Amino acid sequence: MSSAGHILDSIKRMKANRALTARRDAFNIKEANTFKPKAESEFKKYRFRKASPEYLKGLKVQLSAERKRELIKQTIILLLSVAIGLIIFYSM
């Protein structure tokens, strides 16, 4: 049989893989997957700056202006693509 070599090779590979996982010094899988709680001193303490009300108002105005500009761009692109599509469709 021509496939006997492939079967023996796969059996050898499975045995070798099992032998690798059984070695504790090469793959210490059980210890790597355990959960170790951190001490309180290991947690990072973040300090966030507070935004002033004037900055928030300016940011809202800027974002709304950008949103309006983007909406106008998208509308123009949509209308142009529809117009070009209609021109191509009716010219055929």
Automatic annotation (TrEMBL):
Keywords: Membrane, Transmembrane, Transmembrane helix. The chain crosses the membrane at residues 71-90. This is Riboflavin synthase subunit beta. It comes from Roseivirga thermotolerans. The lineage of its organism: Bacteria, Pseudomonadati, Bacteroidota, Cytophagia, Cytophagales.
